[in-house]
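Page 47, continued from p. 46.
Same chain as before, 264 aa.
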Amino acid sequence: MTRLEQKMAALSAAGRKGIFIYITAGAPDIETSKCAILAAEKAGADVIELGLPFSDPMADGPVIQTASVCALKNGMTTKKELAIMRELRKETDIPIIGMGYINAMHHYGFEQFVTDFQAAGMDGIIVPDVPHEESGEMRKICAAHDFHLAEFITPGTTPARMKETCTGATGFIYCVSNNGVTGVKKIDYTTIGEVCQNARTFTDTPLAVGFGIGSPEAAVEAAEHADAVIVGSAVVGRLLKGQFDEAMTFIHSLRTALDEKYKK
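Result:
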């Protein structure tokens, strides 16, 4: 089992919901982003989603767009992201999933990207601008390296498409809560909850709900029919404002709320 599979199995066995925390590599600066990852684990994060900054992050809202621009201005590159991964693995064994866009990976060479980042300790990748229909070769490469390539489901995913995308999914399935971009907003999570329930008929792979979660209350609502929640903008926004301690306190509040509601 991979680190991610072990973590999700352990959470399930303990009756707990997982917390994925997104942090942009290099924002507000390289050292702070590394420290934030280590501190997030201590605050209650189970999985880190490491944002790989790109100039046109089409799935992301204003906060993470700002973080990407900041990181690129700080000189962040794919090779520097690789160096960050190697340094993190000297201090933590937390599952780390990359989140980036295909342009940078294609420029690097996708198979070389998977080989290098898997060797550095990354456990998988989220590539939101490549649809399932176009990811066949990518999925083969990832499978050959025990490297998870996240699949997506959304409120608009039909049962036929859900069967196609979920049946072979590994690691976790990214459940997008609304038709929009990332960012804290008021969401009715009952819709994605129904989607998650439908997905269970096709897969046992853990489901993680993301987009919009900005409070412990929202995390509890989002987690009702899922195995984990994904939180990004609410953390990244605090880091960009220099509110490091506040960001960690927020993560801890998510952990506390989820455990109070769902821990067996």
